[in-house]
Amino acid sequence: MNVCEVDMSLPIQLHVQHRGLETGIPVVFLNSLGTDLNMWNQQVEQLSSRFRIIQMDTRGHGQSSVTSGPYTIDLLCSDVINTLDALGVSKAYFCGISMGGMMALKLAIDYPERVEKVVAANTAALIGQKAAWLERAGLVRTKGMSPVVSGAAGRWFTNQFVSEQTDRVNMLLAQLSNTAPEGYASCCEALSSADIREELAGILAPVCIIAGEFDPVTTVADGQFLVQKVSGSCLEILPSSHLSNVESPQQFSEIISRFF
To answer: Residue 126: CA atoms inside 13 Å, Cβ hemisphere, count?
Structure first.
């Protein structure tokens, strides 16, 4: 494993890890809101013998710099492109979940020459409501992360998974708890203004959408909408809730292997 900090020649550094093969088109993993690059550990373990893998902590998360908000999806996507430029990567596969899934789709819209294929999981063209995101941003800025951590397990996982896989659930909750409130709030603001519904038809790269059968956040209907709008895309439904890569890791990794 290689670890580096990518200096953007701006007041920000992004924490990046390289694993797996040293050659070939890399798979870039893009995280959900309130998590860090370790959310993909099971995929990395299962796929590193077949792929070159790049993981990164989103701006304001993990070991990447926290800059004052608000952020935008465009800004977060530019961080990804600048990281690839710094690493000398001209084109990549992108696999993102939730906010990271929307970022992967936005990258395919705005940077088609950099995108080979996309797996976008548990995401939507419009996630949630603007007022709710702004309310959550204000909450964590005043109260810290505790209010959002308390209900996260129920949003992210099925009840059965929570009761049977305590260690894995706690690992993700710890990532959320350790996220800087300003970084989390600023990404909430990015989601509050993100709406790519009218841009989906412009995606030319092959796209696979993954939905969670029991996801209350980004529903199967959201996934079906994406497939209707993105020409030639496909839909896979996993028996999971919102973080399907954690709850159904083997099936998730198999989809990546088949599609990429």
So the answer is: 9
CA 216 vs. chain centroid, Å, equals: 17
Place of tokens 């899934």: 101
Compute the average pLDDT of residues 97-111. Answer: 99
Non-local CB neighbours of 54 within 8 Å, separated by 6+ positions: 16, 17, 18, 26, 27, 28, 29, 83, 84, 87, 89, 92
Q: What is the pLDDT of residues 122-155, one digit of tens each?
A: 999 999 999 999 999 999 999 999 999 999 999 9
pLDDT in tens, 202-251: 999 999 999 999 999 999 999 999 999 999 999 999 999 999 999 999 99
Q: How confident is residue 12, by pLDDT bands cut at 50, 70 and 90?
A: confident
- Of 69, 47, 59, the residue nearest 5 (C-alpha): 59
Average pLDDT in the chain: 96
- Cα–Cα distance, 252 to 260 (Å, whole number): 12
Overall pTM surpassing 0.90 (yes/no):
yes
> How many CA atoms are closer than 13 Å to the CA of 43, on its beta-carbon side?
30
Comparing C-alpha atoms, which of 19, 141, 30, 23 is closest to residue 79? 30
Q: Residue 16 above 60 pLDDT?
A: yes
Strand 52-56 to strand 12-20: parallel, antiparallel, or no bridges (unpaired)? Answer: antiparallel
Q: Tell me the domains of the chain and their CATH numbers.
A: 2-259 (3.40.50.1820)
Please spell the DSSP secondary structure of 234-257, one letter per residue. Answer: EEEEESS-S-HHHHSHHHHHHHHH
* Tokens, residue 136: 């959550």
Give the separation between CA 159 and CA 214, rounded to whole angstroms: 10
